[in-house]
Amino acid sequence: MTALAAGAAPAAVDPRRRPAALRWAPAVAAYAAVVAVLLAADTPAAAIARWTAYASLAVLLPGTLVFRALRRRPHTLVEDLAMGAAVGLVLELVAWAAFTAAGLPGWLWLWPLAVVAPFAVAPRLRRHWRVRHPTVVPAGWAWSLAGVVAGFTLYLYGSFLAVNPVLPTDEGQAQYIDLAFQLSIAGAATHQVPPEVPQVAGEPLHYHWFGFAHLAATSLVSGVDLPTVLFRLAVPALCALAAVLVAVVGWRITGRPYAGVVAAALMFTVGEFGFENGWRQLFGSQATFIVWGSPSMTYSWVLLLPLIAALGEIVGRARGVTVPALGRGAWPLAVLFLAASTGAKASTLPVVLAALGLTAAATLLVRRRLPRGVLAAAGLALAAQFFATAVLFAFESHGVVLDPFSGLRPYIPTDRPAGVTALCWVLVAVAFLLNLQLRVAGAAALLRLRRGRLEPVQVFLLGGALAGPAIYLLVGHPGSSNQYFTRTGFAFGVLLSAWGWAEVADRAALSARGRRLLGAGTAGLAVLLTAVQLDSAVSTPAVPAYAPVLPLLRWAAVLAVPVVLAALCWPALVGRWPGLAGRGGLVLLTAVLTAGAPGLVLDAAATRVYPNGGAYPVVAMPASRVEAARWVRAHSAPDDVLATNAHCREVVNGWCDARSFWLSGYAERSVLVEGWAFAPRMVGRPDGPYAPFWDLDRQRANDLAFTAPTAAGLAALRDRHGVRWLVVDRQVGPEAATLRALADLRFENARVAVYRLR
Fold first, then answer.
1. CB 226 within 8 A of CB 190
2. Is residue 599's pLDDT more than 90?
3. Cα-only R_g, the chain
4. Where are the domains of the chain?
5. DSSP of 158-180
6. At residue 91, does pLDDT exceed 80?
């Protein structure tokens, strides 16, 4: 007490002396929050228990053992588990391919024994079961990360879980158009390797399907029904893992624990800046509906983040970082995650290659030499990209074309004078940067502090952060899927931005009281911005073209006023409170990074008006259709092929919108001809989803089975194409009366009938 009274600092408390219950409390609290949200969304408790056992024993355990064997020295338990979970997902992919190719997908639950047994028997491997970690995470770090996970899971509840049942409950159910398609690929992956296009039996699926193989493996190992995996369990779990990985990788690369937590908050707590009404996302978004609209993007993050950690060490660790190096283990880890990234998301490897290319160019410019590590890493990434392009995608472009600024062009008027058009281009470009890149503002602060002299790993992060939006602006896609390059680059950007914030915070050297005031002020600003935007959110007209960007620019101008006033008054404020000296940059940067805080709240609130996908297209998903498809799944063999008369989402002026995926999705079976619009050979066609089917003879034979069936025609479908079941949607068109004499009616409800071929 005397020492404290004299002003001496109290002795630091060794975190390892904290009771185990307190050390584990943040993780337990985060898990409990996720479970509570899932239960509130009517997820069966048994499914949660089965999934937990699967994740622990079939992903986390084998992956952690392998990661410990690869890395040189331990750092923290949370790093072992997070990186181990990512390694486990890669190993799972290999095991899934092996068991499925052997015709034994039902035995996939045995695969962890291939890892666990050697680690239990071999003396040199047994030591990895129990490891003493030299570092225990700070309590504030752990609780902050638990808050990010719990908060984002609540967002998922508000934006999707609460308004989307696992299975449709009535005839009026609507669903985001891509979800049944994604379910169909996962269903195909339960018994096919590689999976084929589920809507056109036998058609190769040249696509990034690894994430859907993960969904299939989850269902096969855990025994949880596939719709429950997709619509409830997988996405919250992958997002939680990605949040932990951002924090772990941020700590490892920067050497600063709280840089990792700030990066996780930027990726999973702060949303896009300047929502006009909570659902129209202008140039895209990082989280808004993307985790559901593209589970492959979410899956790719949990492979990309540890890949960044491994490549970050290969290109060169930052000076002064005391986190134990991965050592030689960085190379096999890089190979594992590069290989898995080939089919996780097509946007990953181009961004990684660009980041390595910029690192090599910068190193050559500054040091007049090319480091062999960077060249070798670039060679591995290039080989992975070639494998993906040639083998997985078969050189299909999937509609991606060279089309500079196609993402900005819709907001530029075409009937104005040249000067006005040029001004519009400038304003739209500013809006793009504000909307999608404001959370990367810490990178600019880092460049300023270091006067452009970055460490190699920082150049690598900067390369990825720049490459993502640059590729997005360079290419076009009919479905705006070029946005995913931006999301890939964002994983690099938040790490670099958080690094910049941490260095600004280090220079500010806040006291404990100052840190509390900064935290309280940040929270207050977030609440204030959210309240104001919730109160003022309005829908903007579709015309003129630039109208949607005006609320964003207007909002930026309004916020600029108090910033300018604060800057003008800052000298006087410092004179009144000398403790503010040298802290203005930290306050400003924190406010800028917090400006998008209302994003996720507005997004979740918007589902009250725009449920099931917001502004994205939805399709009817009647319960009667799903009931029939699920009956077929329960009574058919995995390799049975179905035929149906339902091909069109709708018919417009006689043209079929061939985006019908409900049967292949919920039956988890291949269909001879369902909706063909998403087949790789069709994506990018100028007539879009209205393009006719490429095999008219097959379609004619399919349709005659319903309108004018004959014994010979049905036999040809059975013998030539493997068709075993006919599924008739009677609202599309009733079957011919003669079909009952040629096939067996096995199921019917108010809308759908199912026949089995004899």
1. yes
2. no
3. 27
4. 50-176+207-271+289-510+522-606, 623-757
5. HHTGGG--SS--STT-EEETTHH
6. yes
